[in-house]
Amino acid sequence: MNTRRRVRATRALPAAALALVLGMLTACTGTADADDADGSARPSRPAAAPDRAAIATLSDPVELTTGLRSPWGLTFLPDGSALVTERLTARILRIPAGGGPAQPVGVVPDVEVSSEGGLLGIVASPTFEQDRTVFVYRSGADENQVVAVRVADDWRSLSVERVLLDGIETADRHHGGRIAIGPDGHLWIGTGDAFEPENAATADSLNGKILRIAVDGSIPEDNPRDSLIYSSGHRNVQGIVFGPDGTAYATELGHRTWDEVNVLRAGADYGWPETEGIAGDTGEPPITTIHPDEASPSGVAYAGGSLWIGALGGQRLWQLPVEGGRAAAEPIAHLVEEYGRIRTVEAAPDGSLWLITSNTDGATWGGTEPRPGDDRILRVEVSAR
Length: 385
What we know:
Elements: E1 62-65, E2 71-76, E3 82-86, E4 91-95, E5 103-107, E6 119-124, H1 128-131, E7 133-139, E8 144-151, E9 158-168, E10 176-181, E11 187-191, E12 210-213, E13 229-231, E14 237-242, E15 248-252, E16 259-263, E17 288-290, E18 297-303, E19 306-311, E20 316-323, E21 326-327, E22 332-334, E23 342-347, E24 353-357, E25 377-380
Antiparallel strand pairs: 1-25, 2-3, 3-4, 4-5, 6-7, 7-8, 8-9, 10-11, 11-12, 12-13, 14-15, 15-16, 16-17, 18-19, 19-20, 20-21, 20-22, 23-24, 24-25
């Protein structure tokens, strides 16, 4: 497979002179493995121990909307409202800035539902006010794609304008699916290994990778090796976020022992399938690890000097203080089993966090019975440290 042929347009202009030292967390929701490590492990990077009073704190959650079915991705719009995808229905819904009932916008066509596939990530175009465009990651019968979708002016319909990226292998599980716009203005896309671990280490596969393309679908000139693949050796990436210094972080769920938080480096390998977390000696080491029983990380946001990570099987919100692309303290757990599985965490324009629960998607591992009103969106405020 020639990875240069997977994009739909010409080469992008060079990225702005931003010296990105990037990092990422990769994630997965469908593993049934949670065994302890049975071999030698490379040491993890020690975390500093700052005064707990200096670490950002979280307010009590406020409910913004309820009655969603299998919500997955969320993106904010210039007016403060948000668009949410539903994995099983392929619908895009609009949530008012202050909360309230979800307003259906439309159904994205050609979506194939599987154990973890369907309509997944969504992010608004940087020029949404002019072009009414959002980018979504959809699972299809033959492949996964990133497509540009135009939202009608009256918010009552949508249309697929073009396919930006295709050729991502599909499967029952391990789709990845999180997409984000970086400070460079480009699209960052997390893919899963399609339940074939060797895909992550195969140079001509788009699976088990972080992909980086321009919003027109072309390859940025500063991508490594003249390819849309930015990094490899990932198992299943479902969380991507950028710190204020340009560092990119991502969440990744391990096979049996270690979920990871990674800082991405251009052209680097992150070890899967030879290495899982700190169990092994190949690839870039994670900045922190958490056992899958307590995590199964999905979405991630940055606020108040910390990463905030939604945990599926772990049914909690993890806080990881970071500084300079390193963990500044051990992870801190919040909302443990209070709201069930947390799929997505996004920072709102007002600095708060919006959390999406994931209790209605039929998960067979790490699942929980839906609570009355599930699924829902919650708002929490983060104090600056």
